[in-house]
Specification:
Blueprint: H1 2-55, E1 76-80, H2 88-91, E2 97-102, E3 105-107, E4 116-121, E5 129-139, H3 148-165, E6 167-179, E7 182-193, E8 196-208, E9 215-224, H4 241-248, E10 250-251
Antiparallel strand pairs: 1-2, 2-10, 3-4, 4-5, 5-9, 6-7, 7-8, 8-9
Length: 252
């Protein structure tokens, strides 16, 4: 009996030890499994964050937004051509465009000829032009036509009109131009004031036809010897504040 009891006691002890070992092994296996699961989840989370970081837009972009022109720089105003604000005579010839102009330029009263005109006065004050920037309209028929010969025909017509308005008008030469990415053509000219022949007028007429549009625009840049920046017709669109206006010109 003692041997039997001793054997049973040893067997019971062995079973208890085996159960304890088995339980510990199970818990260890479970912890390893949980650790592996947590690690896998962590790796997946890191990979997902990396994927989002690679595909998300940068902080200065908005999903679905298009890149637009920046706001005018400090000290400038923006002119936007709005059909409803034009005289009835101009509304049928409407072309959508905008440009920025320095505050040193004054917006001139609306006319039935130009969509808009802004002018900078010389040091002598109002009535003494230093630089001038005006936008009118031009017809293109058919709308698909866009060639230097067509541009030259329109520049010929504009030259005749200008010759009737400017004393000693003389066209100097014609040059290719690019306005808002659109191929165009310009005529450079020189004239003077009838009552002050020593004051020279420098001019540049640009004809622009946006592809597929029935109407285009004529842009007239003027400078005078009263100003400081423009010293010849070649300076127009290159020097002076009117050149900044021309660079900001955009079709809408």
């Amino acid at each position: 009996m003692p041997w039997v009891l001793g054997g049973c006691g040893c067997l019971t002890l062995i079973i208890i030890i085996a159960v304890i070992i088995g339980l510990m092994a199970y818990r260890a296996k479970k912890k390893v499994s949980e650790f592996q699961s947590d690690t896998k989840s962590m790796i997946q989370s890191i990979q997902e964050q990396q994927r989002k970081a690679l595909t998300a837009p940068s902080s200065d972009e908005t999903p679905g937004a298009t890149t637009e022109r920046s706001s005018p720089k400090s000290g400038s105003n923006t002119y936007v051509n709005v059909k409803d604000k034009l005289p009835a005579a101009l509304q049928s010839n409407f072309v959508a465009f905008s440009f920025d102009y320095p505050k040193s330029f004054s917006l001139q009263p609306q006319s039935d000829v130009n969509f808009v005109k802004v002018e900078k006065y010389a040091a002598a004050g109002k009535g003494n032009t230093a630089e001038n920037f005006a936008v009118g309209y031009a017809w293109f028929n058919p709308p698909s036509s866009q060639s230097d010969s067509l541009y030259d025909t329109l520049l010929d017509q504009l030259g005749q009109q200008l010759a009737g308005n400017f004393h000693n008008y003389k066209e100097l030469r014609r040059t290719p131009e690019t306005i808002d990415g659109v191929h165009s053509r310009a005529a450079l000219f020189q004239a003077d004031f009838h009552d002050a022949a020593k004051t020279l007028i420098y001019g540049k007429t640009i004809v622009v036809h946006p592809p597929g549009k029935k109407n285009g625009v004529t842009i007239l840049l003027l400078g005078t010897s009263l100003g400081r920046d423009v010293k010849s017709a070649d300076d127009l669109g290159v020097k002076g504040e009117s050149a900044e206006i021309l660079r900001s010109f955009r079709f809408q």
